[in-house]
Amino acid sequence: MVNASVDEHPGLGKGLGRLQGRVGIVTGANSGIGRATARLFAREGAKVVCCDIQETTTPRIDKLIEQDGGQAVFLQTDVTRQADCDRMVSTALERFGDLDILFNNAGGGVRKKIHENTDDEWNFIINLNLNAIFRGVRAAIPHFLKKGRGNIVNTASTFGLLASEEYPSYCATKAAIINLTRQMALDYGTSGIRVNCVCPGAIATPRFRGFPPQPTLDRATEEQRARMAASNRALLRMGRPEEIAYGVLFLVSDEASFVTGHALVIDGGQTIDA
Length: 274
Ligand SMILES: NC(=O)c1ccc[n+]([C@@H]2O[C@H](COP(=O)([O-])OP(=O)(O)OC[C@H]3O[C@@H](n4cnc5c(N)ncnc54)[C@H](O)[C@@H]3O)[C@@H](O)[C@H]2O)c1
Description:
Blueprint: E1 23-27, H1 32-43, E2 47-52, H2 61-67, E3 71-76, H3 82-96, E4 101-104, H4 119-147, E5 150-155, H5 168-188, E6 193-200, H6 222-231, H7 241-252, E7 263-266
Parallel strand pairs: 1-2, 1-4, 2-3, 4-5, 5-6, 6-7
Bound molecules: nicotinamide-adenine-dinucleotide.
Nicotinamide-adenine-dinucleotide binds at residues 27-28, 30-34, 52-54, 77-80, 105-108, 128, 155, 157, 200, 202-203, 205-207, 209, 213.
């Protein structure tokens, strides 16, 4: 439960209309990075299809956006299912008449050594982090091709660049997302479609849901939080979801018109030394 008396995103500004008239899909929109980004998109004038498997975080993201004066719709979505991803796109077209932006952000991890993973655990993370991007892109691309314009951002991680102990499926999928981003940028660039990804360092969000996924809020211990803060080696603090949201906003904005296939690292310096 989010405390309603405190604005959960103090780092978000008023909005400058940078996405005026645009329609965006955000996955994992009811929590963490997706939630801050959906809210920022709306503040910048976009209409947002907020997709999430859980709606337990309150206020639900579409309500939060409406409180801000923005426009959004919530869609209960499991991004591992093609039918749900198709519904994200049809909802954007039916409710808001268009689609400009796809932010493939939902994701998670299982912390154990590779030999300790069951088939179900392994496949769960491959499906959630990697196959979901295939499914989301497959749903959105035909519309973008017809329109001759489109924008995709995927959430990778610094753990797609670095190894992290006892995180095999997470590190593998996040590395795959970075190169898949480059690959898709190559295939669709001349069709007016840009594809980028963000690589967040340790960000203070309610994740760590494990397998099977738990609809929990933040369960990290103080010790884990201190370790994560220290991992962002230059700034020595955890990042805020808003600090990733602004990176995503840049990538989908017209100011980034020559940026594609890029992995934007936003990590408080986590990756700058050995
Ligand atoms: N928090 C960090 O430190 C960090 C660092 C690097 C990358 N990331 C990445 O950022 C992304 C968002 O993570 P977060 O930290 O905001 O986590 P979070 O758990 O706060 O939010 C993730 C959201 O995704 C939703 N989700 C999970 N499975 C889904 C599914 N099958 N279909 C639709 N929605 C689903 C969850 O319900 C949740 O609302 C993930 O891809 C994660 O790997 C996070």
